[in-house]
Amino acid sequence: METTTPKVLILDFGSQYTHLLTFRIRKLFIFSQCISGTSSLKTITDLNPKVIILSGGFHSEDAPTLPNGFIEYVESNGIFVLGISHGLQLLVQELGGAVDRGEKQEYETKEIEVLKESALYSGGIGSKQSVWMSHGDESVTLPEGFSVVAKSQQGSVAAIENPERRFYGLQYHPEVTDSPEGMVTLSNFLLNVCGITPDWNLEDVLEEEIRAIKRVVGDDAHVICAVSGGVDSTVAASMVYKAIGDRLHCVFVDNGLLRYKEQERVMELFGTDFRLPVTCVDAADIFLSKLQGVEDHETKREIIAKEFSSVFDNFSIEIDKKIGKKPAFLVKGTSYRPIKSSHGDGGIPMDMTLKLIEPLKLLLKTEVRELGKILNVPEVFLKRQPFPESGLACPERGLGDVTEGNALDILRQVDEIFLQSIKEAGLYDSIWQAFAIYLPVKTVGVQGDKRTHSHAVALRAVQDGMTEDRYKFERKFLVEVMGKICNSVSDVNRVLQDIKW
């Protein structure tokens, strides 16, 4: 992506809301980027940010540290720093203050009171507001020059500042919906305190990226794009096609780990709803033979990545035979993931002969969907829920050896019933992702008058991909779906609901 210099750099020390924070800032038309809190000072200085946000999720006993020279760097370059939640405590510790275990932990909505005038709370914010606290430690001694701007009901520090040194801190999460006035505070900080101009938009991103693709690929090189029918790969393919036209060669790979009738459905979509030329490569037997007997997830990931690489290299050879020009590039349509997720775990090996083009690597999933609308990608693609690169072998879907017995068939049938039931209930667009999970265990049950010893499966639905909050189904819906599964899938006698916290 061409726009690689963020105005706001987020250092993630383990917060579950980092993805959401990145998104909220971009919604203010400010380009923000998140990197690991353990990144080196050189990595930070190379990005040349105007603002740095410390977003943490640690506790005092395992508190991280900022890289050597960080404080000197931000002060000598006039960079504003905001610590959020445990990021505030990290800032306090680094500057000579003290943090200790609080008498009471605060993992809930709390009321805070603004104690003094501050640019953070201008623009009509009341002196009292509800915010989402998520911490067990608290700042007991502030560094020299800092003042308390707001406190919680129980008296713990809620906001601090040292305007002269450009250091600010919020003990709560302003980015979540449980902090109704939090975005006003965040906007005040970025626009009024830091003086950032909100000039980032997706139309400019698209134009810049198309120029970058043309420059990198040149006038005669050919490109392969792996498409799955999902949002990311379809939008990436559309973007590259707009840049280089027929020199793009799209390939859909059936690795034997796809959902129910996925190959037929995706190829039909590309043929009827979106006339982008796509070649289907059926490599199911190859992938599954290599995965046979493998239970360890990391080993499965490596095998899948290696076989994908082999398929792409072979596909480029076939194109060379056909047109006399071997493709030099591979488009990887993976969007930005501040939160570590297994959905991007089918990575491409570094020794692959094709050079990578990653036009979406700094865009969030919601932004990719918006970009797809600008590119006139049909809505049927943009509404599809995410599906991992390692397919049903992903550790969140298929545990253990997925080739054992009829594990994949069971998983496909259960997953299909679950998703179709969601669509029939009109819930599909309200859920970020829903899927079935194959559990490599058998349970004893009674179906009809017969005692059974069959498989257990689980169902999971996520309402928000940024916070990973679960979707709360009505009990009636769950009972009906579980009944359909046990009555339709002969090898299943127990259905569980997976609730991830």
TrEMBL record:
What GO molecular function annotation could you give as one example from this UniProt entry? Answer: GMP synthase activity
All copies of the GMPS ATP-PPase domain together span 200-384
> To which pathway does this protein belong?
Purine metabolism; GMP biosynthesis; GMP from XMP (L-Gln route): step 1/1
SUPFAM superfamilies assigned: Adenine nucleotide alpha hydrolases-like (SSF52402), Class I glutamine amidotransferase-like (SSF52317), GMP synthetase C-terminal dimerisation domain (SSF54810)
One GO cellular component term noted in the UniProt record for this chain? cytosol
Q: One Pfam family from the UniProt entry?
A: NAD_synthase
Listed InterPro entries: Class_I_gatase-like, GATASE, GMP_synth_C, GMP_synth_GATase, GMPS_ATP_PPase_dom, NAD/GMP_synthase, Rossmann-like_a/b/a_fold
In terms of domain of life, where is this protein from?
Eukaryota
Cite the entry's keywords alphabetically. Answer: ATP-binding, Glutamine amidotransferase, GMP biosynthesis, Ligase, Nucleotide-binding, Purine biosynthesis
EC number(s)? Answer: 6.3.5.2
**Could you say which residues bind ATP here?**
228-234
The record ties this protein, via PANTHER family, to: GMP SYNTHASE [GLUTAMINE-HYDROLYZING] (PTHR11922:SF2), GMP SYNTHASE-RELATED (PTHR11922)
Q: What is the protein name given in its UniProt record?
A: GMP synthase (glutamine-hydrolyzing)
Instruction: List the top taxonomic levels of the source.
Output: Eukaryota, Viridiplantae, Streptophyta, Embryophyta, Tracheophyta
